[in-house]
Design brief:
This protein has 200 residues and is mainly alpha-helical. 78% of the residues lie in helices and 0% in strands. The chain contains 8 helices and no strands. Helix 3 packs parallel to helix 8 and helix 5 crosses helix 6. The radius of gyration is 19 Å and the shape is flat. The two termini are 34 Å apart.
Length: 200
């Protein structure tokens, strides 16, 4: 029974990611300002959320690389959900399977260098968010959104979230409001998988 369910889930993921890729590619090809383009954009987001995130992420990676404030939320969601989905697929289908027991056994036995890295990147991310808030108040040139999200992606999501709510900064921007918690969840999945394998 479990094998049949896993096969069905695998087939579903292949189909929804293929469809996600196709719709995101068509969306990229169409004029985003047209009515049809807008409808395709909503369908792309829907397919991303229901499991087609890897397909849409591949389109963003290879074809539609232009980043704007309007498409940033879609990009962040696609990347984070792709990481989560990839880890789940690897944990279930790859030769390097990981169970929750493996994760529990290894999760709190951290490599000290990893701990130092995570502390450093979170402190740096916190400070950079604070600097951006100060620049916003002083109406000076701001730190790029990609820099703030990039620091969060490489491990600084806790520092970024703390700064957002402590400084009341970027809390109304959906690519931060939705994106930062998703980045943190994706990092927990990736770290859990790697720790479950006992690699670090």
């Amino acid at each position: 029974m479990d094998k049949i369910n896993l096969e069905n889930i695998g087939k579903y993921l292949i189909c929804v990611n293929a469809l996600g890729f196709l719709v995101a590619w068509l969306d990229f090809k169409m004029n985003a300002k047209s009515e049809k383009g807008q409808k395709a954009f909503i369908l792309t987001d829907f397919l991303t959320v229901v499991g087609g995130c890897i397909g849409t992420f591949l389109v963003f990676l290879f074809f539609d690389r232009k980043l704007t404030k309007e498409n940033m939320t879609s990009r962040v969601i696609a990347v984070t959900l792709s990481l989560i989905e990839s880890v789940m697929v690897l944990a279930v289908y790859s030769p390097y399977k990981v169970t929750l027991d493996d994760v529990k056994a290894n999760m709190f036995v951290m490599n000290k260098y990893l701990v130092y890295y995570l502390l450093a990147v979170n402190v740096i991310t916190f400070i950079v968010f604070g600097i951006d808030k100060a620049k916003a108040k002083a109406e000076k040139e701001r730190i790029k959104i990609v820099t703030l999200l990039g620091l969060s992606f490489i491990g600084g999501s806790i520092g970024g979230l703390a700064a957002m709510y402590l400084f009341k900064h970027k809390t109304q921007k959906p690519y931060f409001k939705i994106g930062m918690p998703l980045i943190l969840i994706a990092q927990i999945f990736v770290l859990g998988y790697i720790r479950g394998l006992g690699l670090i």
